[in-house]
Amino acid sequence: MRARVAPVGSSALKLSAKQDLPGGWEAGGFAQKLAYVYARKMDVINRGLGGYNSEWGIPAFEQMFTKDKTGTHPKCKLLTIWFGANDACLPFSNQHVPLDKYQQNLTWMVQALRTPSSEYYAPWTRIILLTPPPIQVDAWAQHIAERDPPKDMDRTWENTKAYADAAKEVARELRVPVVDAWDAIWKAAGEETLGLTRFLSDGLHLTREGYEVVYNELIKVIEKEYPELHYDKLPLILPAWDTVDPKNPRASVVSHYVDV
Amino acid sequence: MRARVAPVGSSALKLSAKQDLPGGWEAGGFAQKLAYVYARKMDVINRGLGGYNSEWGIPAFEQMFTKDKTGTHPKCKLLTIWFGANDACLPFSNQHVPLDKYQQNLTWMVQALRTPSSEYYAPWTRIILLTPPPIQVDAWAQHIAERDPPKDMDRTWENTKAYADAAKEVARELRVPVVDAWDAIWKAAGEETLGLTRFLSDGLHLTREGYEVVYNELIKVIEKEYPELHYDKLPLILPAWDTVDPKNPRASVVSHYVDV
Questions:
Q1: What pairs with residue B8 in β-bridges?
Q2: Across-strand partners of B9?
Q3: Which neighbouring-strand residues pair with A126?
Q4: Residue B83, min C-alpha distance to chain A (Å)
Q5: CA B217, CA B226: separation in Å to the nearest integer?
Q6: Rounded CA gap, B213 and B219, in Å?
Q7: I want to staple A196 with a disulfide (CB 3.0 to 4.6 A). Which of A124, A189, A243, B139 is the partner?
Q8: Residue A131 in contact with residue A83, Cβ under 8 Å?
Q9: Which residue, A230, A56, A247, A212, is CA-closest to A126?
Q10: What is the torsion angle, in degrees rounded to the nearest 10, for the CA atoms of residue A23, residue A24, residue A26 and residue A27?
């Protein structure tokens, strides 16, 4: 199978419009933007799990990276890990994960792929951590108050910030490249709560513009840390049509085999 | 690996904006729209090969469906085959494929998956053929005249129509469901050349509105012919977050295993 880039994570990859679907596959979403630039180079397999925290992410992760019957791993070249937005819920919430446990969970995921004795060992998989984006407290409070039944406010700005910092700490300790979505969005918002409106649809989930900011940061990190995986560096699968030899198309198509 | 829906074909899956990339992965494109509705149900693996005809499509097809070292096929649940727009080029063009050869090629692809003795035999793969969309001759003539160097006009309305009819004939003979993109777009255009402007960007490639028309037809065909593969009928991979048991998350995530 073709090499993959797999975004794995929580609601940051979720659809903004339809709350029941996971994603980033909407027009302008994170997965769509990646699939566009990696078209015919790497397949984007989106494993965004809306509402998940890093604790629930671990058994999900295990299933995603389990070897098949032949002992072959899914061939994931680039993995982005993006949990934290739900971990950062306040302790009364079912989604809450304590800060140190959140860090342990991220560490577990990275080490699962990096440790030779791990059954998920995959030294060919390049990893990038993402921090949760900031939240716009008033918008989110209003959003969950309008639910039926209404829910208590379950997040604070400061708490999400603490989880973003914690993710960066893990990245630093494990020497994993990090996309600081929190910082990028907060700066784009002019470091003002009201400025967040353009980037967050309901105070929590990203808008098109929010995805754009995070996507741009991700591409910058790929270019700097894993330049060989930048989309401009990867070969096209199968030859471009105007390089096919019309007199001997089979030979020229086959000669260009790069793992479809 | 997760079951796939794989659109395979030529420039009809290509990007409209960037001529050098294949796709349908643009916002509003064919692959993006499918990935959105099949999110967390089936992965969309886009094998649109811009500029390809059905003749060049065969060695590409063989590579896509070759068994791996263990004898396992790629697990493709739904395959759409969409060639013809380039086959229908006039005979002087390198992309031209004679009408009867075009029909043989489509037949070969379908039979490769359906014939038990075929090395590509995959009885679990549901197949849908698509006809090439109509072309807007004046717009395409202008488009290729503006190239550097300018190219001779290589397509006619009638010829593309003949290839669309030929694809339908193959579908009828082999009893493969067909999405008549030609007819759907032509009807949406009020059966008038000028009406095509909304649906074709350069006289040949689909706009967002063009993709919308074809996508809607495809979903109708799936619903009628392969209802078990309609996105509403497929289970979500991994449980929805609000059904995870917070007291025993691992057990409840694992219990819901459906092949990630």
A1: B47, B81
A2: B48, B82
A3: A78
A4: 13
A5: 13
A6: 10
A7: A189
A8: no
A9: A230
A10: -170
A30-37 and A208-225 helices, crossing angle to 10°: 50
Q: Which of B5, B16, B18, B40 would you mutate first to test chain A, the one with the most A CBs within 10 A?
A: B40
Is the CB of residue A63 less than 8 Å away from at least one CB of chain B?
yes
Q: Which structure tokens are listed for B11?
A: 């420039």
Query: Which residue among B27, B55, B64 places its CB closest to the CB of A28?
Result: B27
**How far is B48 from B45, CA to CA, in rounded Å?**
9
Chain A, residues 138-197, CB within 8 A of chain B, namely none
For the segment B155-172, the average pLDDT, to the nearest whole number, is: 97
**Cα separation of A43 and B46, whole Å?**
8
Do residues A16 and A201 lie in contact, with contact meaning Cβ atoms separated by under 8 Å? Answer: yes
Instruction: Calculate mean pLDDT across residues B129-144.
Output: 94
Classify residue A227 by burial, with Cβ atoms within 10 Å: 0-12, 13-18, 19+. exposed
Residue A209 structure tokens: 């513009």
Interface predicted TM-score of the whole assembly (ipTM), two decimals: 0.89
- Position B71 confidence tier, pLDDT thresholds 50, 70, 90: low
* Residues A93-116 pLDDT 10s: 999 999 999 999 999 999 999 999
- Count how many Cα atoms sit within 13 Å of the Cα of residue A174 in the half-sphere of its side chain: 26
Neighbours of B114 (CB within 10 A): 16
* Å between A52 CA and nearest CA of chain B: 6
Domains and CATH numbers, chain A: 4-229 (3.40.50.1110)
CB atoms closer than 10 angstroms to residue A70: 10
* B-contacting residues in A 17-46 (Cβ below 8 Å): 20-23, 25-28, 31-32, 35-36, 39-40, 43, 45-46
Please name the residue that has the structure tokens 């059966």: B191
Question: Can you tell me the distance from the alpha carbon of A231 to that of A219, in angstroms, rounded to the nearest whole number?
Answer: 9
A49, B95: Cβ pair inside 8 Å? no
Q: Which of A82-91, A223-232, B70-79, B161-170 has the lowest mean pLDDT?
A: B70-79
